[in-house]
Amino acid sequence: MARPLFFHSSLLHLNNLLAHNHTPLRSLDSLSARALCVLRKAMAGPRPVVLSGPSGAGKSTLLKELMKEYDSIFGFSVSHTTRNPRPGEENGKDYHYVTRDVMQRGIDNGDFIETAEFSGNMYGTSKAAVQDVQAKNLICILDIDMQGVRNIKTTDLNPIYISIQPPSMAILEKRLRDRKTESEENLQKRLNAAKVDMEFSKEPGVFDTIIVNDNLEDAYGKLKEALLEEINKVKKINMSS
Q: DSSP assignment of 86-108, as one string?
């Protein structure tokens, strides 16, 4: 069974209470005993992963490499957006493309873990998107911006936070221009947002790992190293199931 999505704080609280309760487990009623086993098993499971960084830092490329090598370990949380698809993007694979009205209705209904707005377009991660991944006993990866990171910090999702950063603003600008997918106005907005993002990543305690993507192979190696413990957890679960 997949781990429940938003119960980490409750799990920690109950486990702490039980840890300081010296009553033997056999003395607890059967429901409490079963609950304790479920709680401890859930807490031992793999944590979700939040991957963040400015557009052009190389998050998507690194994610594709990770999913290719560990397709039975990781699952990608498909975000919602109100922007139009770019050439080659697929609905339901790259994003769930929806209207602003549909997205706002979902936000009002509490269907989203985090939302953000950039260049007049809304982005967000739904609870259902994360639950779909966890239902397959996979490590859920969330690709979100710094607004989303701030929102996730207020929940009890308890993920691993990883920031992917470019070597410099000059290199980032070249990468974005080489895409040829942005107007000059939008490109400048992305560059300005990237400056803020790079400063945000330096704040103590925000990210567990910061990876500067100046070489794809090296950056990918560092990403795998940061996730090795969770990868091994899933492998162990798969071997025992």
A: PTT--BTTTBEE--HHHHHHHHH
